[in-house]
Input
Amino acid sequence: MLDKPIPTLYDWCGGAPALERLTSVFYRRVLDDAILGPIFAGMDADHSQHVALWLGEVFGGPKMYTQEHGGYPHMVSKHINLRLKEAQRARWAQLIAASADEAGLPADPEFRSAFVAYIEWGTRLALANSQEDATPAPQAPVPRWGWGEAPPYNPPE
Output
């Protein structure tokens, strides 16, 4: 008997359509949110689509964010000197996790655990990179998140 290959988080959640639903629901909530609304009030009309591409690549889907937007360096550049606060980071994480239900993402504990683990890791990295004195690595790969933990990134010396 052959074992089936383990699907990526991208495939498990429903791919691009599921992540587009997620970011659409999420950014609709963000714009109405007292904590996050002011930060995103002037966002591009395509912002939610760009975040869906980022999440798709992170979760094992096609490398569309890298091909279309420049990958990690572009994402980091969007957070430089924003001076985000912990309350904003926590609210972002809370709203996207809640949006997963409305968007119809899988509710099984294994998927949600991996999803929330990435959201926590990613938002904490964005928070750190947004501070005035931050010195994020100028080049790094887009993280590829799976069912366990991501390995630590060790930049070349």
The chain has one domain: 10-129. Helices lie at 9-13, 15-31, 37-40, 47-58, 64-69, 71-77, 86-102, 109-129. The mean pLDDT is 91. DSSP finds eight helices and no strands in the chain.
